[in-house]
Amino acid sequence: MKLKEVGKVRFIGITGLPLKIFKYVLDRVPEGTIDVVLSYCHYCLNDTALEDLIPYLKSKGVGIINASPLSMGLLTEAGPPSWHPAPIALQSACLEAVDYCKRKGRNISELALQFALQNEDISTTLIGMNSVEQVKENVKAAIEVESQQSDLGILEEVGKIFQPVKNLTWPSGRAENN
């Protein structure tokens, strides 16, 4: 907080995979100390657990950055990297959802990004890209959110695929934080 007062920093944020870390920290620091949280993999097609925390964060005046709406590659046609820590059941459900979207002529990454961008309580969505083509695809998907609704039928079916593993996550950091 003193760094803010002397003008060395303008904003202070925290990040972590386990959502309970945000409440743990925010309940222990003076109000206004933390300006923003960056949560990843918790507001995407397969995991919307961040939704439950939004009212609390808003009550604290804390902004929200939703990172990795593609769940670190799970929601891509290329699939996640080999080191991805997601449980096999979640990885299998993601593969099934990718295949379903392909059969319906939709790219699951585009659908996932559009889903994440539609939540007006989340101020920023952060997505990684590794090519100019991905930048173009993501900009196109973002623009389409403004001009049309995502295919609700496909979203409903994808939701059914994820129901058995909804909000399933993986360990990160110290065991007691998960």
Automatic annotation (TrEMBL):
GO terms for cellular component: cytosol. It comes from the Eukaryota. Transmembrane segments: none annotated. InterPro entries: AKR, NAD(P)_OxRdtase_dom_sf, NADP_OxRdtase_dom. One of its GO terms (biological process) is L-ascorbic acid biosynthetic process. Residues 2-158 form the NADP-dependent oxidoreductase domain. GO terms for molecular function: L-galactose dehydrogenase activity. This is NADP-dependent oxidoreductase domain-containing protein. The lineage of its organism: Eukaryota, Viridiplantae, Streptophyta, Embryophyta, Tracheophyta.
